[in-house]
Amino acid sequence: MAWFMIIIGSTLTMFGVYRIFGLSKNIYLPDNNNENIKDQKKKKSSSISELEDESRELEKTIKNNNQRLRRLNSDMGTIINELSWKEKSIKRTLETLRVEISSNLDNEHNHIKSVNKTDSFEDILNKNLASEQEEKIPEKYLEIFKLYDLGMTPDEIAEEMDIGVRETKLIFKLYGKGAEDAIR
To answer: Is the pTM of this model over 0.85?
Structure first.
């Protein structure tokens, strides 16, 4: 609304200046005949109609600009609401992540506490190496150890698995599954 008032005020000021200078020209110009006066009146009336046309155009422009401003204001309100919603969503996600991280840290802390404090570094290392070796032992060899645990001798295992006796003893020797007597 303020812009509208500024534009109208500027238009009226320009109109007033134009009238003053237009009238001052008439004062200084000699009026010798009526035709000259008629021409001046026509010019004034045409300039007034031109100013009125310009004023109407300015009013249309102002109305259009006001409509655009209302639309922009509405769009800005929508954007602000969306940003507020997204901010809340991000805060909820961050809180969920914080809780998960805290839970994971607590679990790790409890795991560290649960490690036997009397175990030496070598014991822990040996346990880890043993578990890694178990994971790397082929399925066929695990079957050999199962048969040994059932009480079979290396000769019987070799015959059952259709492999050589030396190979069976070598497997016991390499993977050392407590079959010391089987190696002999």
So the answer is: no
